[in-house]
Amino acid sequence: MAAEQAPTASEYVVHHLTHLTNTKQTALVDWTVFHLDSLFYSIALGLLAVFVLAWAARRATAGVPGRFQAAVELLVEMVADQAKGIVHSAHSRKFVAPLALTVFVWIFLMNFMDLIPVDLLPRLWAGAYAVAGHDPHDAYMRVVATADINITIGMSLSVLLMCLYYNVKIKGFGGWMHEMFTAPFGNHFLLWPINFAMQIIEFIAKTVSHGMRLFGNMYAGELIFILIALMGAAWSWSLGGAMLWVGHVIAGTLWAIFHILIITLQAFIFMMLTLVYVGQAHESH
Fold first, then answer.
1. Backbone angles phi, psi at 35, to 5 degrees
2. Phi and psi for 252 in degrees, rounded to 5?
3. Phi, psi dihedrals of residue 117, rounded to the nearest 5°
4. Residues 42, 111, 156, 217: which is the catalytic one?
């Protein structure tokens, strides 16, 4: 039997950027229904975020806190302070502040998956595929759910729905419709279509940019890790090959250290924009 041919650089990158999907076949086309890997990791890490926060709440004591409790309390106070400065309704903050905290922890955990070596989980998945008698080349697996635009846009759409809810709750449906047709240019019937169009454009722009910002940063980070891994895969028993391997270790370490800042910052930005948009829904123009 001939030795298995190693994938080319382009095949390696494409394989790592391909989602595990379920595909439905029709008479005309094959169409993807779900990105199963993104759904699995986002749901699993969401449950983990809820579990960690609930566990911290149950273990909280009135005495001298441990390191874990102190870290969680610091995070809770930070989110509560940000929510208090942006969402001025104390009643709304009872729901919005815990939601913002959950969003921050959830996104941070999803982003953190980018720090796992790019070949670790995909190779384990390929091994499971092979054991099950399937072709391991078809074992696609992407572990960074926030590098999937479907996940990030879905989250931003959830924020949009929450903003629409608070617009109606705070201002009443009639008051919100009045604002949709009279802001930002004034209450003149000739300006009503322009005002309404501008409001719709604002909602769309905020939602798209909210999801695209997180997706773009995490997709770029994932791609850089894949390209760095290619350097290590190109090693050989030569001076040039050894230098590539050493370079990939150094570059991967430096990028991972820098990426810790990125994954934290992106979680914080998404949380803050969520608070800002909900806060705007409480304000009248």
1. -90, 100
2. -65, -40
3. -50, 135
4. 217
